Every structure is written in structure tokens, then in C-alpha cells.
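Cross-posted from the bioinformatics board.
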Amino acid sequence: MALWNAVASRLARQRSWTAGVGSSRALSSWWHSVEPAPKDPILGVTEAFLADPSPDKVNVGVGAYRDDNGKPVVLECVREAERRIAGSMNMEYLPMGGSVKMVEETLKLAYGDNSEFIKDKRVAAVQALSGTGACRLFAEFQKRFRPESQIYIPVPTWSNHHNIWRDAQVPQRTYHYYHAESRGLDFASLMDDVKNAPSGSFFLLHACAHNPTGVDPSEEQWREISQQFKAKGHFALFDMAYQGFASGDPERDAKSIRIFLEDGHFIGIAQSYAKNMGLYGQRVGCLSVLCEDEKQAVAVKSQLQMIARPMYSNPPVHGALIVSTILGDPELKQLWLKEVKGMADRIIGMRTALRENLENLGSSLSWKHITEQIGMFCYSGMTPEQVDRLTKEFHIYMTRNGRISMAGVTTGNVRYLANAIHVVTEST
Amino acid sequence: MASDSVFAAVVRAPEDPILGVTVAYNKDTSPNKLNLGVGAYRTEEGKPLVLNVVRRAEQILVNDESRVKEYLGITGLADFNKLSAKLILGADSPAIQDNRVTTVQCLSGTGSLRVGAEFLARHYHEKTIYIPNPTWGNHPKIFNLAGLSVKTYRYYDPATKGLDFQGLLEDLGAAPSGAIVLLHACAHNPTGVDPTLEQWEQIRQLIRSKQLLPFFDSAYQGFASGSLDADAESVRMFVADGGECLAAQSYAKNMGLYGERVGALSIVCKAADVASRVESQLKLVIRPMYSNPPIHGASIVAAILKDSEMYQEWTVELKAMADRILSMRQQLFEALSARGTPGDWSHIIKQIGMFTFTGLNSEQVAFMTKEYHIYMTSDGRISMAGLSSRTVPHLADAIHAAVTRST
């Protein structure tokens, strides 16, 4: 390194004789030692898919909804909201905490329309940059105000969760979640981990439609988890990215949160409109923290804003306007609920079709987990090697953990997909 | 055990000094109140302005049924990135032609600065950034939180209300080799004091000879002089010498896209493969922060920049905003002269951009707020964009009263 620098600076001095005083260092970049970063495992899949020229290619990688023709969808309620917004609003800065109207409507979805916590102004809430931004705000807040704490993250989880808490410099622990043999929930081990964690630990919970496994606790299991959390004084942060998208009914999908609220927990919630309103690129979400009283909620909100200010100052207005336009208008809200149910139903239909196709192909393996899992993703149980074969031989793209985005499955490709899965799993 | 919040001990944070001004202004019930706090452009009627060309772009977007709202890639809208680099560096920039520039879409100026700072804190060997004294209040927080340590260099001379050029050269001259230097590309915030081109050349020579790393904050391109090219001269001078630099761009003011949070971070590198590796590392900073940037504002910008007729319309509207501000400067200066307000107020017309550093102290500012319902940041910075011909007399009266009152 020192030798390299010496050579570089000698050459630079030679160069500067001819170029005149004040020319820059001739040869070396400040960034010569910057390594190429690994590709993001999820977003890298779509990049590879786009680069593939095969006419048979199937993208069941990233979790973005597709209709039965494999096309992205803009909801009718969103198009209508945009028509109303365009030309009518100015683009002034939102407050640091975002759109008040949007946040109000968003809290109702999570906490309930008639939530006493909202009425009593006990919820500290700010608009965030979708689910990622909401989680990151919480992680930074946790680091600042509970610096001794760590975060318990389920195994497996959305890979970016690890990046978020790592960049916020909050140490991570894991808790058991997925049971590989049954392709279901490892409930006993999960409860053990909750019991054995030090009192007052911070846990990340997926409110519904766990990503990547699609495996959710039952209502009864949620109640037991809540009781155990109470006994240990743990903090629960719910990441809810799929409300409405899992069962088709937003109220039902918020059950886990409502159970915790009934049991008296002070929770945090990260909400996203990326999937359930199809607002992916608009980056609309919300982080909320339930507090003891209004005074505390005001304090917590002000501190969340202090984290947002040096990160992006204030959140983007357009997506928030779409959300508040839709949720603030009863007709548009009804339309939205109908469209969300439509998306969820299509996915449930594809789960059934994929399972039936595999069973009809005579697969010796059990595929009942396809219909037992819920939400956008199916944790197929395939190995990375099997996934690689799917990509190489069949031009089917998914993340190497075997996660299938059911939203990418259509009546047009489900047979092809089932056949490919059957081929790579039956022969191994 | 579920009865105590784990955040029970959290105390309420102080109001942001800049954004808090608008909060206080909104609470004031006086009909004469005047908001000269936040740097958001206002028309003569005191209204926010959405540019015509922006409305046109919006309509095009909304009418295009084929448009979807999918995730952008981590680095944002590709068209937008290319066009933004051209805008700041010049369409014929050799650095762009050599593929030595990586540009990533970020959340306005704040987001671009933060992403750039995070990258530097991780990959650059010098973790100190020198910022001018004074600077935008959010700058030190951005850099501190990104993991850089912040030092200042002399910039504003209260005696002349101009540039402390000697002090600047001394302080940058004393900086350790490799240190990062934050430079306001034009229309320095809060002072409105910019180096001349000759002074920029001297600054460039000093920075290059000491191997300091320039990090430009360009939030007012086109807004300062009315010319997009003139306002980018400082940045282009540094790029022309073949060296490396960072540049944070914002479209908040010059396209009036404030709340849409549109900006770009460009890193000019020595070689194309370096730029490519740098870009891959920028993605690792962005992904755990917000995954990918918001699509709407960037789509508007791209639509305007890529269409020569809309681009033209934009330059005309931009110049009109810059001209109105120049006119406000002139009117305020004349109003103070007419009142015989003690002191030299020529800095009002010498300073450039959205802000004037009046030279009023915090006590005088508090007086003006209390007695005249005029809101500004306590450092005496006023946003000229918040003035109109109708309100200039009120402001002049208030300044006169503040300066002449016996304490």
C-alpha cells in the first residue's frame, strides 16, 4: 500500500510538472480499494430475469403483485386518486412527520377504526419511506434511546431486516421460526426462545404473511406468544407489509396486533402500502409506537422526526396524497378493499392450482404447505441447488432460499412451473 | 410487566430551528404575519408556486395508462440520473463521456448528502469533513449521523457581510491532507455570499494541491443567477481538472418539487470501473435506509429535462423566479435607504440566491417576531422568496425598528 502510494505520488509529481501548479493527483483514485458490492439477493433476481432472452422465462422472485397476465397492476382506486390529485395540489414540504391525514388513516387500519389509543392520542406516528424506512427509523430510535438493547429477528426473515438493524448498529439475535420438516411454524422452539431471552428484549414480529415463508402463527398461538411476551416484559415491533393481502380482509390480517393491544403491550408497528395499495415505487409507509400517554407520544414523535431530518428531511408527498385521498373517501376506500381482496383471492387461487398440479404430476413429496402458507410467498422447501437448476434449465427466477413469489404465478405459467419444480425435486 | 413503556424516559426533542419557524408562524393569528423562514419560493401574492411545466409533466404522467408504480431500482430512475448528471456537469462533460460518473437518485439534497456521507464514512480514509461557518443548520447533523467528524472553515465575515476569503484559504490550507470539504456550489445558505470565479479558481488550486476531497451541495442551480450553466461553474471547474468530487443536487427549489423529495448524488471518479464499484457500494447504503427512491418526482424531472421544449419552458420559469428575488432584494435595499436605517445594507443586493444574511442578531430577530410578527431563523437569515412588493415596507419598518431601538 505504501509502495503503491509512493509510486503514485512520484508519477503525480512528474505529471504536475507538465500540467502546471494545482493539477490533481494524476493517477490514483480515492476509491481504488473500493470492492464491488455483492448484488442484493432479492433485487438481483429481477436484474438477472430481465437479462434473460428466453421466451419461457418466469419471474417468481421479487414480491411485486402481477395479474393473471403477468402484468403489474395499478389499482383503479389509485388511478382515480391520481386523477383527482394531478393539478390540484402544490408540492410544498410535508412536515418532518409526514402527512397528518395519511398517518391518521393508516393508524386506523392497524389499531382499529375506533381505537381508544388513537382517541387518547397515545400513538406516536410518522410517515416513513415504506416498510424499509419505517423499520430503519425504529432501529435508529431503538439505538438512540435503548442503546443497550438488541433485536431478535426470526429465522428466516426478509434479508433486508438484517441490513437495517446492522446499519443502525443494533446487535442482532435470532429466534426460531420456520420448521423445515413440516414447512410450518416451529412453535415450541419459538416459545423457548421467547422464554429464554433476557427480560425486556426487543422482538421483530411479522404481523401476517411472514416473508419469506408464508407461515403465520394461528390465532391461538399468537395469544400464547403475547402472554409469554407479557411474562417477560418483551417489546414487540410488528412489521406489517401485507395487511389485506394475506387473507383478503385487513381486519383479519391485523389480528396479531389487536391481540397484543388487548393484552396491554406497548408495541411498535411498521406499515407499508407498497403491496396492498400497489404503491411500491411511491415509498409510502408509517412507523408508529404506542406510548403510555399523549405527552410521551409527543416526545417520541419529536424524536423520530429528529432521526428523519438528517436522513431525508421530510417524506415524499405524492404517495401519501394517494393514500389519504383513497382512505378518506368512503367510496374509494370500498373500491380499495374490493381490489385488495381481488389480489389476495387470485393468489390463493394460484396456491391451489400449483399444489394440485404438483400432486397430479405424481410428486412423491407433500405440497400441502403451498396452500397452508399465506400471503405473497411460498417457502417451497427447495434447496439452493434445486433453485439454480430451475433457473439454468427452465429460466425460472426466484431467490435461492426457495421462496416463490406466488404473485408471479399465473394460469398461463402454473403448469410450466409445477413441471419444473417436479423435475428438480423428484430427481434429487 | 406490560405496564411500563420501554420508551418512558424519552424526552421531547427541541423544534428543528428552521422547520420550527414555520410551526411558530402557523400558530400566529396576526393578519400581518410574514414567514421569511423556510426557503420555499412564494409568488408576489405570497402563494406557493407549481411551475407550469411541472403541471404539464404531471398531466402527461397521469394520462399515460401504461405507467406503473413498480419499485425503481435501488439507484432510482436511470433517465433521471443521466439527465441530472448532464445538468450539473454539462452535457459535454468529458467525465460523463468517459463513464467516470456514478449518479444515484436520492431524497432531495438532504438524502443525497446523507448517502454520500455514509459512503465516505465507510470507504474513504479521512473521516473529517470541513463545513463553512455558517452553513445550513442540517449539515452538521447529516454528517455526524453518517459517522464523519465535523470541523469548520471560516467563510462569512460579519464585518464586510461578505466572504472571509483569507480565513477560508488559511483554514483549508491547514486541513489534513485528504480531508473532505463541503462547498456550496452557488447561493450559499444562509449567507448568500459566493466566491467570485477567480476566488473559486484559487480554492480549486488549494484543494487539489492539498488533496482535499470536494463535496458540493447544489441546491439552487439556476435559482441564483437565473442561468443553469453559470450556477454550475464552480462544480464544472473542479471536474475539468480531472479530479474527483461528489455533488449533491436538489430539485426542491429550482423545479419547485419540494415535497416530492427529488435529488441526485453524483460521484465523479478517476476511472469507469471505479465509478461502477462505487455505485455498487452506494446501493448497500441505500437498501437498508429506504430500499429504493420515490418514483413520482423523478419522473416529472426526467420528463422535463428530456424534452427540449419543456426544458426551455423550465429555464424561462426558473429565470422568472430568480428575477423576482432580485427585484425583492432591490426593493428592500431601497426601502431601508429611504428610511435612513443606520448601517450599510448593500449586502442585501450583493448577496445572491434565496437568502439574505441580514446581520441582525438573535435579540433583534426575537424583537421583530414579537412586535412585527416576522418569522425568520434566529441567525438573521431571511428568505427573500417569502417577500412581496406589498410586504417589503412592513419588513423594512421592522428592521428599522429593531436596529434603532435602544436596548
